[in-house]
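To whoever is covering the structure queue this week,

Two jobs came back overnight. Logging them here so there's a record in the thread.

Job A:
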Amino acid sequence: MGRKFSVVLVISLGFGLLGAINVASAIVVDPPTKSCLDKTVGVKAANKIVSAKKLTKAQTAQVAKCKSSASSGGSTSGTTGTTTGSSAAGMVSLNYGLLAYIGSQQAGLGNISDPALLQVGGTLRMFFKNGNEPQIPIAGFDNKIHSYISTDNGKTWTLESGVRIDVTSPVTVRAAESGGYEAWGWVSGGGDAMTRFTSATGSDFIKGAGNVINASACKSADGIAAGFLGDPQVVKVASGYLAYAHDLAATGKAPFKRHMCALTSTDGSTWVLDTSKTLAPQNDVQTNPETYRNASGVIEQILPIDKIDPQTNLRTGMQIRTSTNDGASWSELSELSFFAADPDRLDLSNGDSLLAFGGFDQQKGGLLGVAKKISTAYKASRTESDMQTVVWTISGASQADIKIKNLCLNSDLTASIKFATSGSNITATYAAAAGGHGNSCVYALIGSEQAIK
């Protein structure tokens, strides 16, 4: 392994993404504007604006608002390829190791996203949506739920043929206490109905009953009523079922503070809004949160909350809270060791704890990733600035232990890193080729455990 250092990694994404947007005024998305968009509409939506050939009215308004804010507000820190300030601040222990990842546009599929894990005997099944992505020329999509299977506890995956669940939304799946398996998704027709699906085998699911939910009484920290809800995540409780879904803010305006709405049901088919359980943070819940009862009986809730410190650009990991009383009360939020979209948890019968997650790259599309909870001596922090730099500070590792990869592209970026030593630190800088599209799929993987940050 060699000598251990504290390691500072810098990824410079260059200015290739700062091209003119194809609108009449030829707006240029400069770094301050891009940073504002990341914080107000979310990284994924901001990336869509950057790559769009023509902006919608809503996107035009979002860009104009951010350009106005950037020109009238304070300055943004420049990108020099060096680190400043307290680079060791915000370091957390790395306790998830990457097991596997699968990108889009493979095996005849389109844009794959939104993993949902289920164990059936000795087989793991990862359900996912095989969708479209209007910004990328994609074929092979049907907007239905397909699946990969694993027989080695998530290390390798094989695509199953056919459609597993005939629904056009992502789903949540679980083993039912009474036997068999159940899933939920949104079924359109006279309004989107939260609908229960059942299966005797955990493979092919049959549509059951559901109902349309008016979520307008569920409000954000700023008092904004929820509109369309995202994908619900469901757990069994003593009174029936508890579900959480986040507000998509489909008709809202930036800056977003998307929140989570609670739903309850006695039978899993008829759902009502429970506003007493609303979670409305001051930061944006970017994508679908996870709600999962672990092997110890504790309900975990994992939230992809967008938290970048405006002073240090420190990116915190996903946030987690827990409940031991069926969601009547919750612990304070704490930080997981990395950030990703669309988390999904599963404890295996062999004792492994898995966390599936998503991602997105404008060149390729979505991602299905699977990580395993581990224990390591590594610690790390991650800072992001204007989509042009990502800086990791890593301790407990040697330079040879570290790989930098774009998981969506299945691209190892390590060879392009320029390493330099400074005392006990190693600084490494990666300069992306012109035309790079963000960093949401770029991760540091450390050691044989592939500890992910």
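Job B:
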Amino acid sequence: MWRRLLFFPPVIAAAALVYWAANQRQPPATHDLAETVRDVRTIVAGEIDLVPRVTGFGTVNPGKTWKAVVQVPGEVTYVHPDLKRGRILAEGTEIIRISPSDTEIAIARAQANISRVEAQLAELDANESNLSATLEIEEEVLAIRQRESERRQRLGESGTVSATALDQDARETLAQRKKVQDIRNTLKLVPAQRRALEEQKKLNELELAQAELNLERTRISLPFDARIAEVSAEMTQFAQTGSTLVTADGIATSEVEAQIPISEFAKLARVATPDNQAGSAITTTDIREIIDRMGFSVTIKLDVDSVAVEWPARVSRLSDTVDLKTRSVGVIVTADDTWRNAIPGERPPLSKGLFVGVELRARKLENRIVVPRSALHDGHVYVVDEEERLKIVPVDTGLWQESIVVIREGLAAGDRVVVSDLLPAIEGMRLRPARDAGLEAQLAREALGEAADAQL
């Protein structure tokens, strides 16, 4: 019995020890939470100048292309020794000659026909003169015959002349009258015969002119300074009418049909269109004037071994079709004298088939607030307020251009715009802004279209 009682003292002692230890434990320390401050980069919104522009790409083609099409068939008797693909020949250079034998025969035939008709006209004039003289004589003879017939008629009334003699006299008078009438009829036909011969002469002269023109066509010369693109002419080859012997590309102008997204070109056109012309109807007669009024400046660009080469150009016209697959419009630009102004090793010419970029610029817009695209978040911009806290501001955007965007409403000059990534972005959160002056300068250069050192 007493052994069972010995169990309780240790239990009581342990419980007392636990109670004492619990009373001696210190309560957990508490600390006040400090507000987190986020470091951010900012730019100061300012009114800067902006040059609206779009960029497209296309392939270079010559402004003019000429084909030597055979107009007079014959054997090729001459080919210029430099008539080879890639060579540049001057305007007026005779490049091909076709045998003129058939044409020379046609010329001789036409000349002979003209001479024959001229001889016939001379003969007709002589016959007319002779007939006129003969008519005068025969008319006099007829007058004498008529007077003689009248005397015999009076003698016949007195019975001196027989009736047979009177009939014979009447027959002779009628015969003379017929002779006179025949001459008169022949003379009346002379003007018609002359007109027929003159028309025949004109026809022969036309044949002669055609033959002489064909003779000129046997000599084929370049109509302008050109670079030879294709040659299919060989010596002693028979050239058929309508066949193409040479294709040459003019070097005075080069054209590029740059494919530009429809939306981008439409924005640029809206910006470039004067206010008094906006919404006006466009007709076929003033499209050229409208393009001129927009004042586009064009630069063709090419990167060669990390060296940028540029050529000034002008907007020539718009393509007649729209590419529905790429939703782009073709803007055809023209550059002048790229071959004559080429510098070996520095500035190459715009050769056919070269793939280049084309930049279209509108007139400069002044005093525009511009921010990087990365600073725009679903139509909102992060701004640092006077208390160094985040303010999320809705904005109305204007022109989007490459890596920048124009803010029309929502920002004012002097606002501090956050350009850092904020995840998460909570309205009113504390910020520690640091102004990025380099980015501001880069933004200004980008707005003017100058080369940027880094991505915005």
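Note for Job B: The mean pLDDT is 84.

Please reply-all if you pick these up so we don't duplicate work.
Q.
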